[in-house]
Amino acid sequence: MRTGLVGVGLLIVGAILAAVTGTPADDLAALAERIWPVLLFVVAITVVTELAAEAEVFRVVAERLARLGRGRTVVLWAFIVVFATASTAFLSLDTTAVLLTPVVVLLARHIGVNPIPFALTTVWLANTGSLFLPVSNLTNLLAEHRLDGIGALGFAALTLVPALVAVLVPVVVLAIVYRRELARTYTLSAGGPAGDPVLFRWSATVLVLLVPALVSGLDVWIPALAAAVVLAAVFAVRRREVLRPGLLPWQLVVFAAGLFLAVDAARSLGLTEIVEALAGSGSSPVDLMRVAGVGAVGANLINNLPAYLAFEPVGTSPDRLVALLIGVNAGPLVTPWASLATLLWHERLRGLGVEISWWRFAGLGLIVAPLTVGAATLAFALLR
User: What does the record give under GO molecular function (predicted)?
Assistant: First the structure.
């Protein structure tokens, strides 16, 4: 409820600022045109995940995944690193946060280990691993339009080096911080079949088909919405009581919409000029570090998507635009609202009964975010 109330407050503030600054209706319509697909995707993918969890898909996947580790936690964790990176690269950070989080939490419970290292691996790599392809992050899709139709392969070639570094740094930090937990061994316990085989088969099939559909070139909200409608229809027949208003992440939608409106209105009050002054100009390594740093701080202050929209004017060249993406993609690891993926991840954790201190999350983020953004930007600048 707190997130929703903050969102309502932001909507009110944004509306007041828009009225005071005389923001044209066409500008507000253009903003709505850019953000509604993002919010619809978040709603649809959340519904899909909730229903798949009710069908016990994630529990069964977790139990089978546990066998791959052969009793060694660090081996299992390595598989999670690979899966989180691949999922983020090809399916987007929000999809990773929503789909992989319940798997890793249930996996940790199944083998009797602390779920926090696995959960942090998921959310950190959901953010830092989102530099590989345009589909990896909605900020990338927005930036691709400024790169003169560079395409997926051209984008990947431009961002490959910083993308690899942005994955490597948090993995090293996690391996050091949680070395004792990861060094443990485990014994597999017997699992069981899904309670409703029909719901399980439908849910598993929809998820399998959704993966390629999300990278098919269609707007991601289209396959996500189709998947949500199909699963809702199946559950309406098999378990109607599951279809409740609580399936919809309305608090996150209100919060995100409020952020977008407030930041867009703030641009009319001189935010763009302030950002341009902070980010400077030029494409030397120092200049690019400056751009990335501004992007990372902005993402943690106001969320990475509105931060990208607010700071987009400083991306005056491909190099500066990539530096900005490094900041807003790999940097939002400190505040809970820094990315929608982090908010979705936390919602999944709460739904699974896992608690993590935001103070610890922020403390670790203050270590790994500067290291990741700095190393990725420096690698990009020196190897260009």
Answer: arsenite transmembrane transporter activity
Delimit the domains of the chain by residue range: 2-383
Residue-wise pLDDT for 318-353, tens only, equals 899 999 999 999 999 999 889 988 988 988 888 888
Of the CA atoms within 13 Å of residue 233, those in its CB half-sphere come to 8
- What is the percent of the chain with per-residue pLDDT over 90, rounded to a whole number? 33
Q: What 3-state DSSP class applies to 195?
A: coil
Assign residue 299 a region: left if phi > 0, alpha if psi is -120 to 50, beta otherwise? alpha
**Tokens, residue 47:** 């519904």
Across-strand partners of 72? Answer: 185
- The CB density around residue 16, as the number of other CB atoms within 10 Å, is 12
Q: How far apart are the first and last CA of the chain?
A: 46
For helices 304-311 and 285-302, the axis angle rounded to 10 degrees is 130
Task: Return d(Cα 67, Cα 120) in angstroms, integer.
Answer: 22
Residue 132 confidence (pLDDT): 92
Residues 354-373: tens digit of each pLDDT: 888 889 999 999 999 999 99
Residue identified by tokens 């930090």 is 173
Cα separation, 322 vs 200, whole angstroms: 41
C-alpha to C-alpha distance for 304 and 328, rounded to whole angstroms: 5
Q: Which residues of 215-226 are buried (b: 16+ CB within 10 A; e: fewer)?
A: beeeebbbbbbb
> What's the pTM?
0.82
Torsion, CA 364, CA 368, CA 369, CA 374, rounded to 10: 160
Amino acid found at 146: R
pLDDT 10s digits, 101-145? 988 898 888 888 889 999 999 999 999 999 998 888 888 888 887
CB within 8 Å of 296: residues ≥ 6 apart: 327, 328, 330, 331, 332, 369, 370, 373
